[in-house]
Design brief:
elongated; single chain; alpha+beta
């Protein structure tokens, strides 16, 4: 057979095979579910104020509106907060900021007293469901639950304050406790 005849036979055989398999082309396939149906629930992070706090001068409870502060005094306000946290891998920061100290009016004694007073805040955490992290003021939830956070805000009147502060009046704004989620490890 010559090359032309062999080529024609091979082409005809290929066409017959293609036409014969056109209706019978089959592929096997199968599928199965991966895992089982599950529900995932989001965690939570919130802070709420506990009972009203207490103002003190030293160890004596005071009423700020009737207390007459003098140079050298340090006043503290202590209040508890409830921190509710749940979530695997939940890291958060905790911060307490003192309230603003502002002059009660534009009177020079009020302005001088507001400038002389300083405010700061500290907090402590008491609860077994969170653990301190390696970063400052950062905590990790170990188990879901409520933790008590005690915040102390301090107002100091430096001893060497000027006479211009006498009879001055100030207003204390609300301080704040803030919890903020951070990136998980």
């Amino acid at each position: 057979m010559n090359k032309l005849t062999k080529g024609a036979i091979a082409t005809a055989a290929g066409v017959i095979l293609l036409m014969g398999g056109a209706g019978t082309l089959a592929s096997w396939n199968s599928s199965a579910n991966a895992g089982s149906s599950q529900t995932i629930t989001a965690g939570s992070l919130s802070v709420t104020a506990g009972a009203a706090g207490v103002w003190k001068s030293g160890s004596t409870t005071i009423t700020p509106s009737s207390f007459r502060i003098v140079p050298g005094d340090t006043l503290t306000y202590t209040q508890t907060f409830n921190l509710v946290a749940s979530g695997d891998n939940l890291l958060f920061t905790l911060a307490a900021t003192p309230g603003a100290i502002s002059a009660a009016s534009a009177a020079s004694a009020d302005v001088a007293l507001a400038a002389a007073l300083t405010g700061s805040s500290t907090f402590s955490v008491a609860g077994s469901n969170i653990a301190a992290s390696s970063s400052p003021n950062t905590y990790k939830v170990t188990t879901a639950g409520t933790t008590v956070v005690t915040v102390t805000m301090t107002v100091a009147f430096p001893y060497a304050s000027a006479n211009s502060t006498q009879l001055g009046a100030v207003s204390f704004g609300n301080g704040a406790v803030t919890v903020t989620q951070t990136q998980t490890p």
